[in-house]
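Protein modeling request. Please complete all fields; requests missing the sequence field cannot be processed.
Requester role: graduate student
Desired output: 3D structure, token encoding
Chains: 1
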Amino acid sequence: MARREWSEEEEEEETLLENLTSLVDAGLWQNDNKWFIPASFVVLETQMQASFPHGGITKFHIEAKMKY
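Delivered output (68 residues):
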């Protein structure tokens, strides 16, 4: 899979951070190693696709961005 460029014009990073914050507030982030539970990434992918339907943002892109 090719590396994805996150668009500043679409404010994708800001939206990702807002969605991550909402998951933390909802308690969907913590597992044994203080990281997001796997189901969180499914929720994030759904939220990002709703915000940017033509962006093609997947769970893989979100995880890669967070590791970066």
